[in-house]
Amino acid sequence: MAPLDPHSFADSTQPPTTHISLTLYFDFTSSTIHASALFTLQNPHSGPFFLDTRSLTIHSILDPQTKTPLPFSLSDPDPIKGSQLFVTLSNHASFLVTYTTSPSSSALQWLLPPQTFNKSHPFVYTQCQAIHARSVFPCQDTPAVRICYSARLNIPSELSAVMAARHVERRSPVEDEALLSGDFSWCGQGRVVEEFVMEQAVPPYLFAFAVGELGNREVGPRTRVYAENVAHVLDSAAKEFSGTEDMIREGERLFGPYEWERFDLLVLPPSFPYGGMENPRMVFLTPTVIKGDATGAQVVAHELAHSWTGNLITNKTNEHFWLNEGFTTYAERRIVEAVQGEKRATLNIGIGWRGLNEEMERFKDNMEFTKLKNNQDGIDPDDVYSQVPYEKGFHFLWRIERQVGRPAFDEFLKKYIATFKFKSIDTDTFIDFLKANIPGIENQIDLVLWTEGTGIPPDAYEPDSGVYKLIVSLSNESINGRMPREDEVADWQGQEWELYLDNLPKSIEVSQIIDLDSRYKLSESKDYEVKVSFLQRAIACGCKAYYDEVEKTLKGVGRMKYLRPLYTALVKGSGKEDDKVFAKRLFLEARECYHPIAQGVVEAIFAKHL
Q1: Which residues are within 8 A (CB) of 51 and not within 5 positions of it... i.e. 6 or more apart?
Q2: Residue 278 marked in a binding site
Q3: Residues with Cβ < 8 Å from 319, sequence gap 6 or more?
Q4: Band of the pLDDT at 1, cuts 50, 70, 90?
Q5: Is residue 485 marked as binding?
Q6: Which residues hold a peptide (predicted)?
Q7: Is the pLDDT of residue 346 over 80?
Q8: Cβ contact 434:419 at 8 Å
Q9: Which residues pair with 441 in a beta bridge?
Q10: Is 143 annotated as a binding residue?
């Protein structure tokens, strides 16, 4: 056996899957999917064949031509990888698996009507990154294997479906088109089939769908915004993301052709655990990015940048995650700089720099995860998810750009993308390509220190723009009780306030927090980046006046970027027993509103600090 990936049972001596044809019957009553998956392998195989699963009930595995059962077994579950599905093949290049998902699937969140915007219809959506596709369908769940797929989704007719794939048609179900197990009728009254096809090979973590009462708005020639069919949500999203086509064109100018045809956006209910997920053709977004001033488009810029770095070129395993996120953070900031100006991009860098330094503090007892290339044997990638691959990865690329000059680095990037598109690579492959195309770079920058060393290298560039220095200076002046004047903050948007709040000294007093909020109403901000940063500071100095707002926030959104710092601020450190009781009560009451991935993150915080 030769494992491909520390997070997968996939074996490099076995052929990769090239195509999966999925048939999915959605049962909202039981929060399960009755399904079949027809696998096509790169070449016929005899002997054992391994697939990843998690919380799946496997009913049968068949030869698709003869319908003859094939021997299989399912291992006891590994706490990180799930269960290995062991199939015995005999010169088979294809086989059919029938199975049912579990209500506890780690990729799926089933929402009751009260948990949605419209309050009238249920909703279900996927979040498969990093290793959760295996809880929706059996697969070689590693980014080292790229698949094409087709899917038939049988859903209630009052709902509709979207996927990170091309929509083929919406039609009535047809008898005998589905070989499934379960007590249901494929052609039952009030059911409809939505068909999709993904003809470009993608890693399994980019598989995505959502089913609910959906509406949409056109915002560009390649972009439609989807959300629950609630007018104010759709209208706000369309306004926020009206500049998307400009960003796509800028991305094409910088990085080459956009290969995915469509760049549609889906605004999910508030429980979505990430800011955005770069599913090709259909980016998933949290509603917290709709801020009313178009600054939420920066999240869209990040997900758009993934269309080149992450989706076209993918890290081979999560140990090289910076190849996805460091490159994408760099590309995002280049797009933002071109479309919104250098000031916006610089503020973004400044906020990221502060976040990177905070991650160094978070991992001070386990510096392995401050490396770009790290060892994740026996590690759940969700437990070590951080800003390090994003921000340290960005600074590595920025360091190279500053060394060779932007024009030369731009040419390098285009060549890199053209060379490795639709491939999965590791750090060593990138470094070899870098040295081959920028001769002598290893003598100018310590590439080993940057990729394999811990911490922040000494030659990383701290942001040094005038606006960045001014805001940090204003933060530092709070030590003397000075609050920024209204004329100093008159043109501030969320990023300026976020940078200011993130750099406030830990010694800030309760009275200063209250004075700051009474003047600028930060606890009431519609920008969650600002609100959560302010509430962190309030918790840190023990300002109980804002705990009602903390409760409202933790019960109102499921984005891990906000859950992690607020829950951590409440439970970290000695004493603080009232805060810890408060945090446990909040989680108990809000838990079912969080996606399973987010539930696990909060539970890990409690396990560490309680």
Answers
A1: 9, 10, 84, 85, 87, 134, 138, 139, 140
A2: yes
A3: 6, 373, 374, 375, 376, 426
A4: low
A5: no
A6: 127-129, 273-278, 559-561
A7: yes
A8: no
A9: none
A10: no
Distance CA 28, CA 174 (A): 21
Task: Give yes or no for a contact between 359 and 386, defined as CB atoms under 8 angstroms apart.
Answer: yes
For residues 604 and 594, give the distance between their C-alpha atoms in angstroms, rounded to a whole number. 14
Name the catalytic one among 149, 330, 390, 567: 390
Q: Is 547 one of the annotated active-site residues of the chain?
A: no
Helices (H) and strands (E) in the chain, counts: 18, 19
45 and 177 Cβ atoms separated by less than 8 Å: no
Of 488, 497, 503, 551, the C-alpha closest to 526 is 497
Nearest Cα to 100, choosing from 20, 26, 150?
Answer: 26
Distances (CA, A) of 250 to 59, 398, 421, 604: 49, 19, 19, 40
Structure tokens that stand for 502 in this block: 């993130």
What is the C-alpha separation between 589 and 577, in angstroms, rounded? 19
Q: Is residue 387 marked as binding?
A: no
The DSSP line for 409-477 is HHHHHHHHHHHHTTEEE-HHHHHHHHHHHSTTHHHHS-HHHHHHSSS--TTPPPP--HHHHHHHHHHHG
Number of C-beta neighbours around residue 253 at 10 A: 12
Give the model's pLDDT for residue 573: 85
Residue 423 labelled as part of a binding site? no
Which residues does 180 contact at the CB level (< 8 Å), separation at least 6?
23, 25, 34, 35, 36, 98, 186
Distance CA 92, CA 62 (A): 11
**Is pLDDT of 292 > 90?**
no
Is 194 marked as binding a ligand? Answer: no
For residue range 19-56, what is the model confidence (pLDDT) as tens digits?
999 999 999 999 999 999 999 999 999 999 999 999 99
- Say which DSSP state 82 is in: B
Selection from 235, 229, 273, 271 nearest residue 120 by Cα? 229
Instruction: Confirm whether residue 561 is marked as ligand binding.
Output: yes
List Cα–Cα distances, 241 to 137, 208, 305, 449, in angstroms. 33, 21, 15, 39
Question: Which tens digits make up the pLDDT trace of 399-438?
Answer: 999 999 999 999 999 999 999 999 999 999 999 999 999 9
Residue 466's CB is within 10 A of a number of other CB atoms, namely 9
Taken in order 59, 63, 69, 73, is the CA torsion positive or negative?
negative
User: What is the DSSP secondary structure assignment for residue 4, as one 8-state letter?
Assistant: S
Identify the pLDDT of residue 270.
95
Question: Of 109, 208, 75, 245, which Cα lies nearest the Cα of 596?
Answer: 109
Amino acid (1-letter code) at residue 434: L
Residue labelled with tokens 């088109």: 177
Q: What is the average pLDDT score of the chain?
A: 96
Question: Per residue, what are the HEC states of 157-206?
Answer: CCCEEEECCEEEEEECCCCCCCCCCCCCCCCCCCEEEEEEEEEEEECHHH
Does 560 belong to an annotated binding site?
A: yes
390 is a catalytic site residue: yes
- Under DSSP, is residue 361 helix (H, G, I), strand (E, B) or coil? helix
Q: Does 498 count as an annotated binding residue?
A: no
Residues 6+ apart with CB under 8 A from 422: 146, 200, 201, 312
Active-site position among 213, 250, 303, 332: 303
- Residue 306 known to bind ligand: yes
pLDDT at position 294 over 90: no
Residue-wise pLDDT tens digits, 500-524: 999 999 889 999 999 999 999 999 9
